[in-house]
């Protein structure tokens, strides 16, 4: 699809430039974006990007050379002074243009997400929409960047503070939200006056290329946003380059811990959103039909490849008897390529991921749990026989020591645990090392309040699974799911991408000597 869009010139109709060279017959290459230009990499190392529903090679993405990565940072360094000094209102106007262009092209972007990531088209639209909301939020950057003032802290002395950008910032993104996560990063970073170097996931690079093309069309000047591609070496370059002041990371534990350690050791700010095990606690007084609908959607939507996917259910008391009805809902879901009408689950990202999920399902059986719905090797239409499909899987009798509970599965697999009462459920959930998301299903205000008060996971839903906060709040993962001091977007995001400068100023309309004071100034006493 991506190549056919290009070949039929539809990208041009969209105003989206051709991102791929036609250097080979059918395998296009993904370009770098440096100083406002789409540049063909000189790399000798390339990674194939495959459509996860068919294994068809969509594009090849370069492992950027050192010179290319340096050129991207140089461009960002050079662009910074003028961008910092662009009025905050004009930066907001550019974000408004950006919003309009994303909306205009939303369907094509969603198709691109579906093709390279595999998720269903409605889900791809949701992926983009949640990112678009951050762009919308960044349009209010003049108020987001307001500082504070106190007049008369002393006679004729005022103190005021304001927020200034850091300089060049960088982002490293995962595969599972090709639009949303780059848009968690770029709008907040640049609207606040920074310049940016993004390394998208090498598994889904094309969506990012469209997003930066649109940013350029919106009026983002050359060098303000740059894209490099690669894997570990590109990430290490970002961690080490002294020009880069802050790194936003979203992805797995292994990479997130590494980037946090290496980036902070080099004196950079790092915000690192990592893996998760998101629990739902189901109380007997919950609205059963709505709860089971919500659970099936949250556990199996996006084939479980959301950092906030519902991956563990704690059934309290007799609610364990609801499991057969959950199984029935899961069985009704349609598994096929994300672009097909009515698809509920597309493929997982890669054959390796599929193998991992299979292995963990098998481990559950080996360790004594029961697979009441087994999604291994589901039936899919013949043309997708090579796709990485895993169907909804439900495992019961799961205990905290089991591999399927301890590891993030990142597939359409729900592990079910049981608990006598709410207190025990809270203790069980809090014992889990992760702290990304959690939800309670109940009709009791008292139970919900107790849960929200005591639960340690810091994105908490009440009768809402996948409680990803809107951008005027922040995404507040915790415990093993987060490293760093400031979270993504919202007030926290503004803090992450800015530093506070505080001015103490004295303006007097006379010039009378007050004597030389060598003691510590005690302005507040005067
Ligand atoms: P990943 O860690 O494999 O890749 C993320 C990025 O890090 C990519 O750009 C990749 O090139 C780079 N990378 C991979 N391995 C690296 C290494 N060893 N050293 C340095 N860089 C490395 O993650 P993924 O598979 O793309 O994404 C899925 C993971 O992301 C899941 O664990 C999911 O929970 C997590 N995630 C978390 C959130 C959140 O907000 N907490 C959101 C989305 C995804």
From TrEMBL:
One of its GO terms (cellular component) is mitochondrion. GO terms for biological process: L-valine catabolic process; thymine catabolic process. It comes from the Eukaryota. Keywords: NAD, Oxidoreductase. Its EC number is 1.2.1.27. Residues 38-503 form the Aldehyde dehydrogenase domain. GO terms for molecular function: methylmalonate-semialdehyde dehydrogenase (acylating, NAD) activity. Belongs to the aldehyde dehydrogenase family. This is methylmalonate-semialdehyde dehydrogenase (CoA acylating). It comes from Tieghemostelium lacteum (Slime mold).
């Amino acid at each position: 699809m991506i190549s056919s869009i290009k070949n039929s010139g539809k990208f041009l109709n969209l105003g989206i430039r051709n991102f791929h060279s036609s250097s080979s017959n059918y395998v296009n290459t993904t370009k770098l974006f440096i100083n406002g230009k789409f540049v063909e990499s000189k790399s000798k190392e390339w990674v194939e990007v495959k459509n996860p529903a068919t294994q068809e090679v969509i594009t090849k993405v370069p492992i950027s050379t050192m010179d290319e990565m340096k050129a991207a940072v140089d461009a960002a360094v050079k662009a910074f002074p003028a961008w910092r000094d662009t009025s905050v209102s004009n930066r907001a106007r550019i974000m408004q243009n950006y919003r309009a262009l994303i909306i205009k092209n939303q369907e094509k972007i969603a198709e691109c997400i579906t093709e390279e990531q595999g998720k269903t088209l409605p889900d791809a639209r949701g992926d983009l929409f949640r990112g678009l909301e951050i762009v919308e939020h960044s349009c209010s950057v003049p108020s987001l960047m307001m500082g504070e003032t106190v007049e008369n802290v002393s006679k004729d002395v005022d103190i005021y503070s304001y927020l200034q950008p850091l300089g060049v910032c960088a982002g490293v993104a995962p595969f599972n939200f090709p639009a949303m996560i780059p848009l968690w990063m770029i709008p907040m970073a640049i609207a606040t006056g920074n310049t940016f170097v993004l390394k998208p996931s090498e598994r889904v690079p094309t969506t990012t290329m469209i997003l930066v093309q649109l940013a350029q069309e919106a009026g983002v000047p050359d060098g303000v946003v740059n894209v490099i591609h690669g894997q570990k070496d590109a990430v290490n370059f970002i961690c080490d380059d002294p020009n880069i002041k802050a790194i936003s990371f979203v992805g797995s534990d292994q990479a997130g811990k590494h980037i946090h350690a290496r980036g902070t050791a080099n004196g950079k700010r790092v915000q690192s959103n990592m893996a998760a095990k998101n629990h739902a606690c189901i109380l007997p007084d919950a609205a059963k039909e709505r709860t089971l609908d919500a659970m099936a959607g949250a556990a199996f939507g996006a084939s479980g490849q959301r950092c906030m996917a519902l991956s563990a259910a704690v059934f309290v008391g007799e609610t364990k008897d609801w499991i057969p009805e959950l199984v029935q809902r899961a069985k009704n879901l349609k598994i096929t390529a994300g672009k097909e009408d009515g698809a509920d689950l597309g493929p997982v990202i890669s054959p390796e991921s599929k193998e991992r999920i299979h292995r963990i399902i098998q481990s559950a059986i080996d360790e004594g749990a029961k697979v009441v719905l087994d999604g291994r090797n589901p039936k899919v239409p013949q043309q997708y026989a090579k796709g990485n499909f895993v169907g909804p899987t439900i495992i019961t009798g799961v205990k905290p020591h089991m591999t399927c509970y301890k590891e993030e599965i990142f597939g359409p697999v729900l592990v079910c645990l049981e608990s006598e009462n709410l207190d025990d459920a809270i203790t069980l959930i809090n014992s889990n090392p992760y702290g990304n998301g959690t939800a309670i299903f109940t009709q009791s205000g008292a139970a919900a309040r107790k849960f929200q008060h005591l639960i340690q996971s810091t994105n908490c839903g009440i009768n809402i699974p996948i409680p990803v906060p809107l951008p005027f709040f922040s995404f507040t993962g915790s415990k093993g799911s987060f490293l760093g001091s400031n979270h993504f977007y919202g007030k926290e995001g503004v803090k992450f991408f800015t530093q506070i400068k505080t001015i103490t100023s004295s303006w007097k309309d006379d010039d009378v000597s007050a004597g030389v004071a060598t003691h510590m100034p005690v302005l507040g006493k005067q």
